[in-house]
Amino acid sequence: MFVVDPSLAAKWFIDEQGSDKAKTVLLDIQERPEQYIVIELFFVEMLSILSRTGIEGEKLKEYLGYLEELGLQRVALGHEQLMIACNLVKKHAISSYDAQYISLAQLLKGKWLTCDAKAHAKIQMLGVSQIVF
């Protein structure tokens, strides 16, 4: 299982360094959506990221609708995941947002796919993250 981070998904809509590699992941999601998962927070974060870049109105709704239609599995935050995230935040000095994605990857024995090099570097020794760029 691959846990998709908003830093990766944003590159599907915003042309910047790493967009080509990110779009390769998107192609795989289209072929094998059952292998990819997000937490519900993902959609709120994507709304925030896309709107900050100046995308608005119908285009913003279109992009968010596209994300919903990809077939990504969605999970709510559970107690065990939250407790793991608490430990990650304290031990690795990462954001509580990143900790949610990482804790899900740990629980699933999967990989957190991210473009956030700083966060990846902080938890790389755990073996649950993969940098994409």
Strands side by side in the biggest sheet: 3-2-1-4-5
Sheet/helix structural class: alpha/beta
Proportion of strand residues: 5-15%
SSE series: EHHEHHEHHEHE
Q: Give the C-level CATH assignment.
A: Alpha Beta
Major sheet summary line: 5 strands, parallel
The low-confidence runs, each spanning 5 or more residues with pLDDT under 50, are: none
Under CATH, the topology is which? Rossmann fold
Percentage of residues assigned to helices: 55-70%
**What is the terminal separation in angstroms?**
19 Å
Corresponding CATH architecture: 3-Layer(aba) Sandwich
Mean of all residue-level pLDDT scores: 96
Q: How many domains, as an integer?
A: 1
What is the fourth-level CATH superfamily? 5'-nuclease
The general outline is globular
- Based on CA atoms alone, the radius of gyration comes out at 14 Å
Number of H- or I-type helical stretches: 7
Number of strands: 5
Describe this protein's structure.
The protein is of the alpha/beta class. The protein has one domain: 5'-nuclease (Rossmann fold, 3-Layer(aba) Sandwich). It is built from 7 helices and 5 strands; from the N terminus they run βααβααβααβαβ. It has a 5-stranded parallel β-sheet, with helices on both faces. α7 links the parallel β4 and β5. α5 packs across α6. The two termini are 19 Å apart. The mean pLDDT is 96.
